[in-house]
């Protein structure tokens, strides 16, 4: 169903495009695949929330139109001192919030102290794990003010780490956003729950998002330090889950950028308006270790062996997605000595073997002392997830005697809430990384990771990961490969496929660039 608010927005936009109106005043109309959960950078974990934040916020660094790291709020990309453990930044004096206030070093301190504070319940606080005193603060043994972040002056900011981090610049660019200190004090835990309780410092400010509606817009932030180079003043956004609806809106000229899937991609493979690229993302199955029915390595092995990942990507999705070979997606990390891609070097550790799957299923039934079992698989209500869920349901029920599979497909925000509540047995989730390093994916299975929704805990795995991640260079790389191989041997979680994304982009629009890690930034878009 097309949102009413979006129809109104498009109507107004169309009226504004009469002869004589400049491209500068023409709104760009785009879609988002699902509902966001928050605009709070400290609490966001889902990709849809990340999309709002990515378009409206800016950290010390940002990505340019070619997806290279360049200075954002900081005056320059700095070189660390103290053997890679100390970063000292000078902020731009003309970096401002959407209300005209200056962005200060204290705004970064406010944000990161709030994020590390256990009371905030920031599910992804682990992105601060390399900061001084992180562990003690997370255990409530030290005050959050002791995190290794200090405002030396209004424009001088310092980070103190406990170790050098090879991908730290990526974290600076996409994870460590400032928060307007006054706004946080005013709204407290309600910060980020809607557009009115959010303060932007990036090229756009968020308008019209109530926290639960499916249409809103971005308006150019006149106080943004680089506002003169933001060519499009308004971007209308509508949640459009159905690929057919998205394609029809595009064909009718109602949207200029949208995501399409499956059938449309197959039917329009040669369309000049379509761009397809792999994502730095993995779709994987979580098995809840705290639920009796799903707490079983035999079950994990059975499901992993019975699904045919090539069938999923080639027949079910048909959108350029690639079968998972291990926990590491293609392009995520390269061998520092040879330059070889880690995913290729590890090889395919996830073969299909129906006979083996049946043997593991028999062991599972014996383990549970049952002849009949009902399992629930939780997915998003997106086209892709529902199709993959239906495939898994069919292949599992066909090959596993006595099994009934129930599918539950929920809107993304509700799905995420179920993730954190541990309210699932088998869960199809997606994990997108913000930096090219396998530790992010491997860390999902560690005991201490805040998004290990399964509560799976393996002492040997934890030790392998910790030891490998403490090393540097080739030793670290080899250690992470060994960690990946062990994880896949016992199936701590079960990777399914690396998604591809297909975008329809109007030939009237330029400046939209995509990468393994990043969606397009509308600040670089322009009307041709």
TrEMBL record:
Residues 68-450 form the Solute-binding protein family domain. GO terms for biological process: peptide transport. Its main location: other. Pfam families: SBP_bac_5. One of its GO terms (cellular component) is cell envelope. Keywords: Peptide transport, Protein transport, Signal, Transport. PANTHER family: PERIPLASMIC BINDING COMPONENT OF ABC TRANSPORTER, PERIPLASMIC OLIGOPEPTIDE-BINDING PROTEIN-RELATED. GO terms for molecular function: peptide transmembrane transporter activity. Residues 1-18 form the signal peptide. The keyword Glycoprotein does not apply. The keyword Cytoplasm does not apply. Belongs to the bacterial solute-binding protein 5 family. It is found in: Cell envelope. Residues 320-341 are annotated as: Disordered. This is ABC-type oligopeptide transport system, periplasmic component. InterPro entries: Peptide/Ni-bd, SBP_5, SBP_5_dom.
């Amino acid at each position: 169903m097309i949102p009413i608010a979006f129809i109104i927005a498009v109507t107004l936009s169309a009226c504004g495009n009469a002869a004589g109106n400049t491209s500068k005043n023409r709104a760009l109309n785009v879609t988002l695949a699902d509902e966001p959960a928050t605009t709070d950078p400290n609490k966001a974990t889902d990709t849809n929330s990340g999309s709002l934040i990515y378009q409206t916020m800016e950290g010390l660094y940002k990505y340019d139109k070619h997806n290279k790291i360049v200075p954002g709020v900081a005056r320059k990309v700095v070189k660390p001192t103290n053997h890679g453990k100390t970063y000292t930044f000078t902020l731009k004096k003309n970096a401002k919030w959407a209300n005209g206030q200056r962005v200060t070093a204290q705004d970064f301190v406010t944000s990161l102290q709030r994020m590390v504070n256990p009371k905030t319940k920031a599910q992804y606080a682990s992105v601060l794990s390399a900061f001084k005193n992180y562990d003690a603060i997370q255990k409530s043994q030290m005050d959050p003010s002791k995190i290794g972040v200090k405002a030396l002056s209004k424009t001088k900011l310092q980070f103190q780490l406990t170790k050098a981090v090879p991908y730290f610049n990526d974290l600076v660019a996409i994870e460590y956003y400032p928060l307007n200190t006054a706004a946080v004090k005013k709204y407290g835990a309600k910060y980020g729950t809607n557009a009115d309780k959010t303060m932007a410092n990036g090229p756009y400010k968020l308008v019209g998002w109530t926290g639960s509606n499916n249409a809103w817009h971005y308006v150019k932030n006149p106080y943004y330090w680089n506002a003169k180079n933001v060519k499009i003043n308004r971007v209308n956004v509508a949640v459009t889950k159905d690929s057919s609806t998205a394609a029809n809106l595009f064909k009718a000229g109602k949207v200029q950028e949208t995501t399409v899937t499956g059938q449309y991609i197959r039917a329009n493979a040669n369309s000049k308006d379509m761009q397809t690229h792999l994502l730095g993302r993995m779709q994987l199955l979580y098995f809840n270790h705290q639920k009796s029915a799903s707490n079983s390595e035999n079950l994990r092995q059975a499901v992993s062996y019975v699904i045919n990942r090539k069938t999923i990507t080639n027949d079910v999705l048909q959108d350029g997605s690639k079968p998972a070979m291990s926990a590491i997606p293609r392009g995520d990390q390269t061998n520092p000595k040879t330059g070889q891609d880690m995913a290729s070097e590890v090889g395919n550790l996830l073969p299909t073997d129906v006979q083996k799957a049946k043997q593991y299923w028999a062991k599972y039934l014996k383990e549970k002392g049952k002849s009949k079992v009902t399992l629930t698989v939780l997915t998003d209500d997106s086209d892709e997830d529902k199709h993959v869920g239906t495939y898994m349901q069919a292949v599992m029920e066909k090959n596993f005697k006595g099994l009934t599979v129930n599918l539950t497909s929920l809107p993304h925000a509700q799905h995420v809430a179920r993730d954190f509540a541990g309210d699932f047995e088998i869960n199809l989730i997606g994990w997108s990384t913000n930096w090219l390093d396998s530790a992010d994916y491997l860390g999902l299975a560690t005991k201490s990771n805040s998004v290990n929704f399964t509560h799976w805990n393996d002492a040997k795995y934890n030790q392998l990961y910790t030891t490998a991640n403490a090393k540097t260079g080739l030793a670290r790389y080899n250690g992470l490969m060994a960690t990946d191989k062990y994880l896949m041997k016992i199936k701590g979680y079960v990777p399914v496929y690396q998604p591809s994304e297909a975008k329809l982009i109007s030939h009237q629009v330029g400046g939209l660039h995509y990468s393994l890690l990043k969606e397009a930034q509308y600040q670089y878009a322009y009307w041709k």
